[in-house]
């Protein structure tokens, strides 16, 4: 019986230094290629696909496509900040949707939060699209924040919490669902009691 299968062979092609978006500091990297091979008795024999090149950080071991080498630190920080603002807005939409509907007051609040606190102006059409996607996929605010907040900085976590609080309290009071989500955010965002409380207190003064 002939044993036939496939495997990926990975090789290091080059080394250098770059700004790692995950570490948020300059790091050394390896330029690597990955290529699938047909194996016979677990021995790679024939390449069956083209080689895929990628960059791997020596510090955190994260991998990136080659475009990561084309941006300097400021470029990466700008992209990360833009990504954070979009993610924070989605989190605000999700916490508003937690009770199953969105009021005109909440829409107005989301528009104000986007253009003010998050500095990423949006419109009703975009909010509607985000709401539809979230509803169709049954995305929960807690699961979403748990997944994406790991790459947020401490100031970003604080701002996201404030934005979510303002969105949740847009009607003048917090619903049971929104209150439960906000309570979980302290742990999800890895905030201490003083950090959590001061962020909420500051949000109360936001206009």
What report would you give on this structure?
The protein is of the alpha+beta class. It has 2 domains: 4-70, no CATH class; 74-204, Orthogonal Bundle (TerB-like), CATH 1.10.3680.10. Helix content is 48%, strand content 22%. It has 7 helices and 5 strands, in the order βββββααααααα. It has helices at residues 73-97, 104-115, 124-137, 141-148, 154-168, 176-188, 193-204; strands spanning 4-20, 25-40, 43-47, 52-57, 63-64. Strands 1, 2, 3, 4 and 5 form a 5-stranded antiparallel beta sheet that branches. A hairpin with a 5-residue loop joins β4 and β5 (63-64). α1 (73-97) packs across α3 (124-137), α2 (104-115) runs antiparallel to α5 and α4 (141-148) runs parallel beside α6. The chain is elongated. The model has no long low-confidence stretch (mean pLDDT 88). Pfam families: TerB, Zn_ribbon_15. Residues 88-199 form the Co-chaperone DjlA N-terminal domain.
Task: Summarize it.
This protein is of the alpha+beta class.
Layout of secondary structure:
Elements: E1 4-20, E2 25-40, E3 43-47, E4 52-57, E5 63-64, H1 73-97, H2 104-115, H3 124-137, H4 141-148, H5 154-168, H6 176-188, H7 193-204
Antiparallel strand pairs: 1-2, 2-3, 2-4, 4-5
Helix pairs in contact: 1-2, 1-3, 1-4, 1-5, 2-5, 4-6, 5-6, 5-7
Q: What shape does the CA trace take?
A: elongated
The third-level CATH topology of the largest domain is: TerB-like
Low-confidence stretches: none
Strand elements, count:
5
Number of domains: 2
Q: Indicate the proportion of strand residues.
A: 15-25%
Overall residue-averaged pLDDT value: 88
Largest sheet: 5 strands, antiparallel
Distance between the amino and carboxyl termini:
74 Å
Query: Compute the gyration radius: what is it?
Result: 22 Å
- CATH-defined architecture of the largest domain: Orthogonal Bundle
* Annotated CATH homologous superfamily of the largest domain: TerB-like
Domain Co-chaperone DjlA N-terminal: 88-199
Protein name: Tellurite resistance protein TerB
InterPro entries: DjlA_N (IPR007791), TerB-like (IPR029024), Zinc_ribbon_15 (IPR031493)
Organism: Novipirellula artificiosorum
